[in-house]
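Final report, Chapter 2: Outcomes

The project's central promise was a pipeline that accepts a single protein chain and returns its three-dimensional structure in a standardized token representation, suitable for archiving and comparison. That pipeline is now operational. To close this chapter, we reproduce one record exactly as it appears in the project archive, with the input sequence first and the structure output second.
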Amino acid sequence: MGNYGKTGFSPKRNEKVGSAAHPLSLVVTSTARQLEVEELLKANQLFANIDLDETGTEDISQLDVALNIPKTQVFEKVPERNAPCSCGSGKKYKKCCG
């Protein structure tokens, strides 16, 4: 385990899910859906092992995770205390909206 225990350091951080070395595991219920998923994989340059199970349930959750990568949030800069207020009152920010 080393100094890091079970959390903190990931020695496998360079493993990209959906690459040729680490393909996604997907289950679809029809051949039409399989072709649709294959086109989606080609468009996003991902690799997957697709199993066709007509009696089971569809499971493409790994594909959803690979496609929906969260974006970094950017917040507007708050004006400094002594700067004019952005509401247009003419007062300092600290006296008006701060």
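Archive annotation: Helices lie at 31-43, 61-67.
This record, like all others produced under the grant, will remain available to the consortium after the project formally closes.
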